[in-house]
Design a protein that fits this description.
By secondary structure, the chain is an alpha+beta fold. The protein folds into 2 domains: 3-148, Fructose-1,6-Bisphosphatase, Chain A, domain 1 (2-Layer Sandwich), CATH 3.30.540; 160-265, D-Maltodextrin-Binding Protein, domain 2 (3-Layer(aba) Sandwich). The chain has 7 helices and 16 strands. The strands form 4 sheets. It has a 7-stranded mixed sheet with strand order 3-4-5-6-7-8-9, sandwiched between helices. Helix 1 (3-22) runs antiparallel to helix 2 and helix 5 packs parallel to helix 6. It is globular, with a radius of gyration of 18 Å.
Length: 284
């Protein structure tokens, strides 16, 4: 079996097992049961038993098969030894925990593998819908085994766009009223996968996102023919030596619309980081 095939098989096996674990708690259209043990790591930042169980499953599969790789996960205390590793797993056990808790089919399990800071393998699973998105660097992007590509739209006016429910609720999208067609969606990782699949033309946020939110999606979008950068048009690198490995903005498009997206967002200020103390170096 080729090395890349074995690698992807390991990733998919772990992600599928983690996805099955979430479905023990998930209740479509309803709040999760008390068994999910919902609590909060910080205000508006929930944690459940499913998050922790997924983290254990993924660590067992991925680090068990590749013990020399580094590990960066939302639900694991950061071990800076990852900085000495060329290859590092960047994992979000459940991206969109609030949606998971509320019974929305908009959460995802996201696994990216980076080599020297750049993603080389990606897997995003929406357990509630069964959509499995995969990519290997240079090998294209796939949804349940079928090749996908971004949309071919070239006109910005009227483009379809996925938006954060909370950002829509705070009025951060009012300036695009009548120009774009925003649709609310939960998980960032799932948004990126849907743009990669060509179902939407773009998604963007000027609110800080963690590396594990976007790592898998970056490769999916790139391998599907799209573009993904920060607000300055810079590409992403991962496994940064930071206490809080984040990016302040994420702009994702099918490719042809990207330059205009960058231009339209150039003078719009970044949103504050709601999870960091105001006035800190991470939230000036």
């Amino acid at each position: 079996m080729p090395a890349n095939e074995a690698l992807m098989n390991t990733i998919v096996a772990g992600v599928r097992e983690a996805g099955a674990a979430t479905l023990k708690y998930f209740q479509p259209g309803e709040m999760v049961s008390e068994a999910a043990g919902v609590r909060h790591k910080s205000p508006d930042n929930p944690l459940t038993e499913a998050d922790l169980e997924c983290d254990r499953i993924l660590h067992q599969h991925l680090m068990g098969a590749y013990p020399d790789y580094g590990w960066l996960s939302e639900e694991t205390t950061d071990d800076r030894s990852r900085m000495s590793r060329s290859r590092v797993w960047v994992v979000d056990p459940i991206d969109g925990t609030k949606d998971f808790i509320q019974g929305r089919k908009e959460y995802a399990i996201s696994v990216g593998l980076v080599e020297d800071g750049l993603p080389v393998a990606a897997c995003t699973l929406n357990p509630a819908t069964g959509e499995l998105f995969t990519a290997l660097k240079g090998g294209g992007a796939f949804l349940n085994g079928k090749a996908i590509k971004t949309s071919d739209r070239t006109q910005f006016d009227g483009a379809t766009c996925l938006a954060s429910r909370s950002e829509l609720g705070r009025g951060e999208w009012e300036q695009f009223h009548g120009l774009l067609k925003p649709s609310p969606m939960g998980s960032v990782a799932y948004k990126l996968a849907l743009v990669a699949a060509g179902r939407y033309d773009m998604t963007f946020t000027l609110t800080p996102k963690s590396e594990w939110d976007i790592c898998s999606g970056v490769l999916l979008v790139q391998e599907a023919g799209g573009r993904i950068t920060n607000k300055e048009g810079e590409p992403f690198r991962f496994n940064k030596d930071l206490e809080y490995p984040k990016t302040r903005s994420v702009l994702t498009s099918n490719g042809p619309l990207h330059d205009e997206l960058l231009a339209r967002l150039k003078d719009i200020p970044l949103s504050p980081d709601r999870y960091m103390p105001k006035g800190s170096i991470h939230n000036p």
